[in-house]
């Protein structure tokens, strides 16, 4: 759903830069802490700003043609608002999403930034090149950036996937027959685990999700690095 992806990505990467600068000023030079905390905070910020769009996306993707009657984005917004408690309906499952996004975004940014820094420090002649906007700053070559982004996405997805399953289950609770068993995050986790176990429940679909998240994160981080050069933001690392 492109309507959600664009604002989500823009907010997340902008917030990461802002939070990293803020944390550096407040906490000093502990770069590992900055990366993890700034990434988590950026992910949470982006989720809160775009969650209603994610809810609508989930409903449109899940519905069976001819049964639920969601007819486009605006109609889905209206239906959720009128039938599921107003604004509260848009934020069903927000808490597990935030709990899941904190480690996902945190480890994603942390892994990418750590791989990037390590690669440029020890293998700059192979992996790096001078930034187009500031020759004094080294940046990753495109293949290296894609690789680091893909690895970051895979690690972050593996860590946070059970909470992502919980989020999706809670978003769909209102239209599934056993909705009373999935009212809270802990209830939903327990229900999925008891019914399906770990591999077929909490991690069901992970391999397919890798096919989506690894290339998407690779492209996202590479685009982020490229746009930093285009917008002349590489004054300092």
TrEMBL record:
GO terms for cellular component: mitochondrial inner membrane. The keyword Ion transport does not apply. Its main location: mitochondrion. Keywords: Membrane, Mitochondrion, Mitochondrion inner membrane, Repeat, Transmembrane, Transport. Solcar repeats lie at residues 30-118, 140-230. It is a multi-pass membrane protein. It is found in: Mitochondrion inner membrane. GO terms for biological process: transmembrane transport. Belongs to the mitochondrial carrier (TC 2.A.29) family. This is Graves disease carrier protein. It comes from Eleutherodactylus coqui. The lineage of its organism: Eukaryota, Metazoa, Chordata, Craniata, Vertebrata.
